[in-house]
DNA sequence: TTGCTGAGCGAACATTTGCCCATGCGTTAA
DNA sequence: TTAACGCATGGGCAAATGTTCGCTCAGCAA
């Protein structure tokens, strides 16, 4: 029974979903769909591809591919992980996020289906955003989604990689955005900001999250923190000289996975890195360029779960 | 690092899964997959279709419409329907007629656009009236609209739910109101009335209608027949004791969809229940309170098409 | 009214996919 | 040893799908 609004956009997406269903679920040809929906063949095609591009169509492969299983058990053993999922790589697109996003979303969905209330803490970044986009719509008012860090860029605008709001919207859970910018101006300001009641509450939630899902950032000129303007050229040089190897929720760590002692880290407003020994902390990360950062995070037990792909897994074990 | 078994079957399914992944997740063409897996294009195609036939590939559509399509194919299969349309429900107004009305009107419109002359027979009721109101104005002089029953209330006044006149007016078709009251005083009078030439002609039209569109009435104190004063308190008790479960064009049937043998049915002046095996007979019905009546109509093959909403469909399949 | 613009449509064309069939290779039974 | 059989393979073709391009039409400003 249709609700009040009959915007063209709504009906168009409805039709797209219908066409997608008829195509992918019912196995109709586009000609048949065209006939059933009373449109031309081309329009049916457009609807089907709209369903695709709007990500209404979710495909997953339900088979443990032996090579990936080997890699994941290798990673679990080598780094003492609780959870590890390795998905196939496309040799021509080894950094494609879709595969890991689907795998991580499947794990998330699994957690969300639990009747017991869960606290799920999220970082930011392309990888997490891709994960959240793979989540189906559901209704989980018993859970809480909390952000581990703010998403304000240097100029005051918001980064487009905020996963929390989108996820809470999709799964119908209560959510807690992180009420601070990514970086404070200095330690003094940071202490001031963290004194706020709302901040303390959010931090407390982050601390007892049942599942923490984060991305991993590399250093260098391709670093997310550099690209998004949180780290200047000069500062990046200093950081790399100090051994900076990777970053999780903006906390920069060295090759041993230890938080390095720099001005930058002293201004990071994010929630503290979670204690990965007690809670589930799963990272989603893919790509050759991230390998040192991932390896360091594994070495330092910053995480105890990993979702990655075949090529990255091979490099991590190599 | 090897797993236990490496039967040809296992590796073949592995390859199928990989091919399916490259195809559906990474979006490669079968040529690319062939190159990447080092097999011929045809073999790649076989792997992809194997992944499909082995159901390694799970597709789902993430849109409310998808749930409706699942429900409608469920209803078609369970009850052997020719036609079924399930529209989304508004959780806050599960009995709202607008949605089903639009859906049924769309189907009607589809029929009306046929160049071949159609006979369309209509029942009465709120649902049908709502359908007709959703019809656009058009000009279809080639078709004929005929009423399946009268709309005279006990006191001689007309019920407000007459759909035929309004529809004929909207679509510019010839129309045939039903020239009798809903109920005769007794069998004798009924026989007399049905002897009239006009009545016989109308009945004949009803009998060969290409499409029959009806509502479904529940029993009990909320029954349309009770509310509109066609059934008294005492009679309703008798009917329910006799197993009355629902009603289509005033013909009352039991839980198996069989017309029950009572005084009431012997006085019903409506056209006979259509032979749903030969013609299209579509019911429009929504609401928890109507579920037993709809289920009985489906069980007894009184109808072979259904337009309903999500919540009702779930109850019917539950 | 006229002209502009952008969305949507469908014809035509290019690409991809699905399927049948002839071929060849290995295996088995006579 | 050889004929027969099973079966994976790739050629080739028809169907299905994706894309481009020019057209129309509604909406809108001059």
UniProtKB/TrEMBL annotation, chains A, B:
Q: Which InterPro entries match?
A: NagB/RpiA_transferase-like, SorC_transcr_regulators, Sugar-bd_dom_put, WH-like_DNA-bd_sf
Q: Which UniProt keywords apply?
A: DNA-binding, Transcription, Transcription regulation
In the record, what terms sit under GO molecular function? Answer: carbohydrate binding; DNA binding
Q: Does the keyword Transcription apply?
A: yes
Q: Sugar-binding domain: which residues?
A: 64-317
Which SUPFAM superfamilies does UniProt cross-reference here?
Answer: NagB/RpiA/CoA transferase-like
Regarding protein family, the annotation reads: Belongs to the SorC transcriptional regulatory family.
**What is the name of this protein?**
Sugar-binding domain-containing protein
Instruction: Name the source organism.
Output: Puniceibacterium antarcticum
